[in-house]
Amino acid sequence: MRYLLSLAIALIFFLFLLSQLPVREVIQSFKKVGFSSFLLAFLLYSLSQLTRSLRWKLILGISLKDAFFLNAVNVFFNNILPARTGELSWFYYANKLGIKLKYSLWSFLLGRAYDLLALISLLPFSYLTVRFSLIQGVFFLIFTYLAVFIIPLSSFLIPDYGKLKELKAFLRREFSSELSLKLFTLSLTTVLLKALSLYTLLLGLHSLDFFSFSFAFVGGELSTILPLHGFMGYGTYELSFFAPLKLLGYELKEGLKVGFIAHNFLLFSSAVWGALALIYLHTASRS
Question: Among 20, 28, 67, 188, whose Cα sits 20 to 30 Å from the Cα of 91?
Answer without folding.
Answer: 188
